[in-house]
């Protein structure tokens, strides 16, 4: 009963959901051919969690596990752990605020596969941590097939994360990604061998991982650091710095206090004073 009351209270003060519904109404008016899609995916639902479970279930369901079954699994996870819904809202806000190609919450919710992959991971992670590892791996596999994003369900990802374009992103089993991280397509958080234990990167809060960055091994990427496009990072990265190259080395400061929000990928001139 307390959980239901909290959910009802959230519905009454949920600005992202309210904005999403308004934008869906505008979409339906401007594109009549998509009015049924907007209604079925967003407008007929009472809460963001219900809309999300419906939308992703239609994508992930197949002949092996029907969309209706997938939706039940997603709704179970979203109901049991309200923190997932909080993370969904933070992720949606991150896409809208940081991606210049995104002009509304509705665009990200309906069409951006980085967002879809990330929220599918969140349910898979819930399943993994609650003893349903086979189902978690099923969702991971479907996510990889559909979105070209491979996030192991055991990885630990914070909230307010943006995965821009997303194609080719790989995040390994023991990786940890802090809050407010941004990454672009082709990013890998991988291992360096066949170790059985903790073997993947730990990415701090507010880090920006540029296109094609490869971070390998159980190393720390300090908070609010930047990793340049195409870099291969094999050693720990100090906070508030920029690294680039193959192998990567420190080439300057991070360029701003909030690199993951500012999304500035221009590399600084080498700074010998660091």
Strand order, sheet with most strands: 3-6-9-12-14-15
Sequence of secondary-structure elements? HHHHHHHHHEEEEEEEEEEEEEEEH
Radius of gyration: 19 Å
Average the pLDDT over all residues and give the rounded result: 93
Shape: globular
Residue fraction in strands? 5-15%
Helices and strands: which structural class?
alpha/beta
Low-confidence stretches: none
Please bin the fraction of helical residues: 40-55%
Q: Roughly how many Å apart are the termini?
A: 56 Å
Tally of helical segments: 10
Biggest pleated-sheet summary: 6 strands, mixed
Number of strands: 15
Structure characterization notes:
The protein is of the alpha/beta class. It is 45% helix and 15% strand. It has ten helices and 15 strands. The chain has helices at residues 2-12, 15-30, 35-43, 48-60, 67-80, 82-98, 105-111, 113-129, 133-147, 259-262; strands at residues 149-151, 156-157, 162-164, 169-171, 176-177, 182-184, 188-190, 202-203, 208-209, 214-216, 220-221, 226-227, 232-233, 241-244, 249-253. The strands form three sheets. A six-stranded mixed beta sheet has the order 3-6-9-12-14-15. A hairpin with a 4-residue loop joins strand 14 (241-244) and strand 15. Helix 3 crosses helix 4, helix 5 (67-80) crosses helix 6 and helix 8 (113-129) runs antiparallel to helix 9. It is globular. The model has no long low-confidence stretch (mean pLDDT 93).
């Amino acid at each position: 009963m307390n959980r239901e009351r909290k959910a009802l209270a959230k519905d009454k003060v949920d600005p992202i959901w309210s904005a999403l519904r308004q934008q869906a109404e505008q979409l339906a008016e401007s594109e009549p051919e998509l009015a049924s899609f907007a209604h079925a995916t967003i407008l007929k639902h009472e809460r963001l969690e219900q809309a999300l479970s419906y939308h992703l279930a239609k994508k992930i369901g197949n002949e092996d596990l029907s969309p209706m079954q997938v939706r039940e699994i997603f709704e179970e996870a979203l109901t049991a752990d309200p923190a997932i819904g909080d993370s969904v809202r933070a992720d949606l806000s991150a896409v809208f605020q940081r991606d210049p190609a995104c002009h509304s919450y509705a665009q990200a919710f309906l069409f951006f596969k980085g967002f879809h992959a990330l929220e599918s991971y969140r349910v898979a992670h819930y399943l993994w941590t609650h003893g349903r590892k086979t189902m978690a791996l099923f969702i991971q596999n479907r996510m990889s097939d559909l979105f070209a994003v491979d996030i192991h369900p055991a990885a630990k990802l914070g909230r307010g994360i943006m995965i821009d374009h997303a194609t080719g992103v790989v995040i390994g089993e023991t990786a940890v990604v802090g809050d407010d991280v941004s990454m672009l397509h082709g990013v890998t958080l991988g291992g360096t061998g066949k170790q059985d234990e903790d073997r993947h990167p730990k990415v701090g809060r507010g880090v920006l991982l540029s296109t094609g960055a490869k971070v390998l091994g159980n190393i720390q990427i300090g908070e609010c650091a930047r990793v340049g496009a195409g870099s291969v990072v094999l050693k720990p990265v100090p906070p508030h710095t920029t690294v680039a190259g193959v192998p990567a080395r420190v080439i300057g400061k991070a360029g701003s206090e909030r690199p993951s929000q500012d999304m500035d990928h221009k590399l600084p001139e080498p700074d010998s004073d660091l």
